[in-house]
Each structure stands twice: as C-alpha cells, then as structure tokens.
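Before we proceed, please read the two lines closing this message. Tell me what the token row says about the fold.
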Amino acid sequence: MLPLLGCVLLGCVLLTLYAPGGFLRRNEPPPAPAGWSPYDLAGSIEAAQTRLRRQPDDAAVWASLGGMYLEQARRTTDTTYYGKAQGAFERSLRQPTVDGKPYIDAVIGMGALANARHDFAGAVRWAEQARKEAPFRWALYGVLTDAHLELGQYEQAETALRRMLDGRPDLASFTRAARLEHLRGRPGPAREVLRRACAIPGDAAEYAFCQWQLGELSWNNGDPRTALTAYAQALAADPEHVASRAGKARAEAALGHTDQALRDYATAVARSPSFVVEYGELLEHLGNGDGARRQYAVFTAQHKLLAANGAVDNLAIGMFEANHGDADAAVRHLRAEWRRRRSVEVADALGWALHQAERHAEAATYAARADALGGRNALFAYHRGEIEHALGHTAAARDHLRRALSINPHFSPAGATRARALLAEMP
C-alpha cells in the first residue's frame, strides 16, 4: 500500500504543477501548437487558424496566433497585423482557465502589442500584470525593457534586462543588451553582443534580424561597407526582410552605387511604406523633386489612414513636418509625444522642430539632453551643431558638426552636405 500511496501523491503533485492553470504551466512556455514553424509564418498562421476552427476555445493557440501576427508585422512593417494580433490575444484572454486567471502568454502578448503601437505606459502595465502571475516568464522582461527605454527610464530598463539575461540569455535578450550598449556610446561591446546573438542557433528570420542589427550598428558608426555586408547576409537568409533592403539601399547610396540604391529603395517601399521618406530624401538630394514629392505624398496618405484608425505616430509625423512641412505643426506633434515618452529620439526630434520654428534657445535644451544620453549618434550631433550655429555659438557649432561627420559622414544626404558647407563657412 505504501508504494501505491506514494504514486498517488506524486501524481497529485505533478497534476498541481503541470495541469492547465497549474503553477509551472503559468510560469513556463507551453509547447508550440502542432504545425507551428517560426520561419514559415504564413503556413504557421494557417495551421493555427485550422486548429482554432476545430477547437475555438484553445487559449494557447489564440495567444500563439497573436504572437505570429505580431512577428508578421515586425518582418513586413505592415501595421494592419496589429489589429489581428489584438483580436487573437483578446480571444485568448476570454477563454476560461482552471484557476480563473488570464492566459499568461496573451497578457505578455498584449504588452508587446502595446509597445509596437507606442503605448509604452500600457506595455508596462501589461508586463507588470504578467510578472505578478508568472515572474519566471522571461519574455515579459523584454516587454518591460523596451517600454522603459522608450519612456526614457533607463535604470528601470537596465534592471529588467539584467533579469532577462540572468534567466534567458538568448537572441531576444542579447539584441536588447546591444541597444543599451549603443546608447552608452560603446559600439565595440554592442557589436560583440550582437555577434554572440547571431551565433545562437535559430531560424533564418532570426538570423536575418540579427544581421540587420549588425548592419545598423556599422552604419551608425560610419562604416557603410561593413553595413552593406551585414544587410546582404540578412537578405540572403530572408529575402523579404524589408528593413535590410532599405539599409542596403542606404549603404549603397553612401558608397556611390546610386542606381542600385534607387532600385533597392523602390523594392523596399513597394513592400512597406515605412521607408518612403528616406527614399524621398535621397531622390530630392539627387535633384528628382517630383519623385520625392510622390514619396512624401505616400507618407502623408499613410498617416492620415493610421490617424483615422486611431493610431497617430507623432514622432514620425513630427520629424516629417520639421524637415519637409510646417515647423509649428511639428512642434505640436512632438510636444504631444514628449508628454507620452521621454526617450532620446523624442528629445532630439523636439529640439530639431523647435529649431526649425526658430525657437533656438528652447531647442538647445532638448538637443543637449538627446546628445548626452544618445551615445554616438551623428544625427543628434548634427542637430545640436545647427542649433548652436543659430544661437551664434560658432566654436560649439563647429565641434558638434565635426563630431557628427566623424561618427558617420553619410548620416543623411542633405544633412551631411549641409554640415560640410557650414564648416567651410566658419572661420
């Protein structure tokens, strides 16, 4: 009887730990749904949808489907997937569980979706809810890291990332660590972390994402040849990686391969409108004003459509207006964004918009903040140099403009040309 009693007790313990709603089931990722492949997203989505037609109350599959929609949005930069992801996560959250608590993957997924939609305070709330229920689900710390970074809360971001690295040192945690190293102005450690991430076995899309990150790091530090190699490796792994296609075009333009750059930009914007302003600025720099205006019109139409659906990207619109439209409108958009989040990108953009609106003294405050916290960033240094020049601070302007060109002499077709012209004029 004793061995039999022992087996019964062991069975009860295991059921308590691993049953749906049990402690470990809430704290450990569930097995992937049948037929799921991290690379073949279209096939994976179809497999999940087929399973849900047979079992519409499967919370795990609804949460996985939401995650796949988010991944599709990241790979394609198509924001229409956000609505699909939200619907899937909400269906998962509505399904009954044994303990009456929401399915934790769906909670974390809602946090990731909030980050993607730039609702960073909302992302923190979702991630903190997940942490109360399942503190050892490491993905929630990625949501927290991203949200705190965008809110300008760098100490909280570093704390969350350290917890994530301690628990799960993988591609997701290493790429976030690289971003923090870059913000600290340490490109060497950032590159080493990314190389470690790229060596982690994974699917082709993950490798492409990692190589794209390496390309961005090389580009931001003024090395377009190495950047071009990384972008090409990303595209060899995943030809549909739009951000790498646009990065390749940017590097080709810097190296003087203009025709190929224009072809790659055209391919990128045909797949995603996210890079139309960048493409338009190159066309404008090359003297093709009509082509540039067509790209800018696409940007305007896209953001009107997003605004009609309640998704206003104040940072993107503000930067566009500051460079190509109404400076006062740019300030309004960027002040609204600053109230929501105080990241270095928003500080720089608001400072630049204020400068374009001829409020140079106020602009200098934001530019200094962005430049101090933004690591080695050529665009931030250039903006600060322009603002100091407008204030009549010639020595400071010269220092910042030289620094911008030393970090990345190709940071912007128009900006780099303007920086050189200003330096040539200065005594």
Q: What stands out?
A: Residues 289-308 form the longest helix (20 residues). The domain at 41-166 is CATH 1.25.40.10 (Serine Threonine Protein Phosphatase 5, Tetratricopeptide repeat). Residues 9 and 406 are 69 Å apart (CA to CA).
